[in-house]
Specification:
With 367 residues, this protein is mainly alpha-helical. 68% of the residues lie in helices and 4% in strands. Helix 6 crosses helix 14 and helix 12 packs parallel to helix 14 (318-327).
């Protein structure tokens, strides 16, 4: 019990650090989304291969925005079912934010691999799966989760004007990011590096504390991204901060991500205290792979965090994390479930098959 309590404080600190970074990344993505809206989607309709590339690209963008976008285009009949499957293979939902915060190099490899797999599967469906187009929802159907388009969301006001007439929401966001920056700079939030290298088809992971003579690139990245967020908080309009950053991101995601991350860390730590988890997992990797794929069917962010934590702790190989990421799509597929249950279940069945094949091949070759 004493050992567990002694590890509780660093676990809580790590969960707060991960959640804070996830929030900062999501806020920046929301900012970029609002600034870059346009009529680009209409050009996709007449280019099937461009649909696949676009869908894969939207999928690897952290968060569920990319999946929502492609589902909306699919509901309007602009992109085909193959593009829908492509985006759902490529997306990892909100879990991508967590992966980029705790295993950044592995997350880059993962996104590169699933980007290629997603396009390949989409091309196969586009070429040989014409029958799946019957699952398309009626064109022009109601779009789910479409953000409003407002030209005045971000007004060209000066930073000084925003600070002079500061609202409670702006003060809260600025205060929060300043505290996070202080915790990073002062060392309250520490971070172990996860370094990865591919040798003979295997990804080797070494977790080691950063020495004083080395540059802590992860912490430096955290600081730079946090400064970008601080700039956004001071520059943006009150409407954008309150409706988009606070209403769309923080209120909907912060507590859920914090609790799931904390729960996953506590579960792994508790099991490690009483059982030789590494030995059991290494002896049952195929069962873990099956569990990862089955849990991936759940159209929700959160349950999949456990596989990120297990990989971060060195308990599962990269292939299982890959299979989990292929099948799960956060809650990006929820709008599709509302629009067309048949499309949802057919898409999930295809992704489960792809995840099992990719994860199985990876386990077989020791990847």
């Amino acid at each position: 019990m004493e050992t567990f309590l002694s590890s509780l404080v660093p676990i809580i600190k790590q969960a707060i650090m991960i959640t804070s970074f996830v929030m900062v990344m999501m806020l920046i993505i929301e900012f970029l989304n609002v600034k870059s809206r346009g009529n680009w989607a209409k050009h996709l309709k007449n280019s099937p291969f461009l649909q696949l590339v676009f869908a894969a690209f939207m999928g690897v963008i952290p968060g569920c925005l990319g999946a929502y976008t492609v589902v909306s285009l699919y509901a309007h009949g602009i992109v085909k079912f193959a593009a829908l499957v492509t985006v759902m293979i490529a997306t990892s939902g909100d879990e991508a934010f967590v992966m980029f915060s705790v295993i950044p190099e592995a997350a880059l490899w993962l996104n590169g691999i699933i980007f290629i797999i997603a396009i390949l599967v989409g091309w196969l469906l586009m070429t040989f799966g014409k029958r799946f187009e019957f699952f398309c929802v009626p064109p022009g159907h109601m779009v789910i989760h479409e953000h409003e388009v407002e030209a005045a969301v971000i007004k060209p006001r000066s930073i000084w004007q925003n600070l002079k007439n500061m609202t409670f929401t702006r003060a809260l966001l600025i205060g929060g990011i300043v505290l996070f920056l202080f915790a990073l700079v002062s060392g309250v939030f520490g971070h172990d590096h996860a370094s990865f290298s591919i040798v003979d088809g295997q990804i080797h992971k070494d977790l080691e504390a950063v020495g004083h003579h080395e540059i802590d690139w992860v912490k430096l990245t955290f600081i730079v991204i946090s400064l970008v967020a601080l700039f956004i908080f001071t520059l943006s309009s009150d409407h954008f901060l309150e409706e988009h950053l606070w209403g769309h991101v923080i209120k909907k995601h912060f507590l859920k991500i914090l609790l799931w991350t904390l729960g996953a860390l506590l579960l792994v730590n508790t099991l490690d205290q009483y059982y030789d988890v590494n030995v059991w997992i290494s002896d049952n990797l195929w069962l873990i792979l099956l569990a990862a794929v089955l849990i991936g069917i759940v159209p929700e962010s959160g349950p999949h965090f456990i596989f990120i934590i297990l990989f971060f702790q060195g308990m599962i190989p990269f292939s299982i994390l890959l299979a989990s990421s292929i099948v799960q799509d956060g809650h990006g597929a929820l709008p599709l479930l509302a629009e067309s249950r048949k499309s949802f279940f057919v898409m999930k069945a295809i992704n489960v098959a792809v995840g099992l094949i990719a994860g199985g091949i990876g386990l077989f070759v020791g990847f």
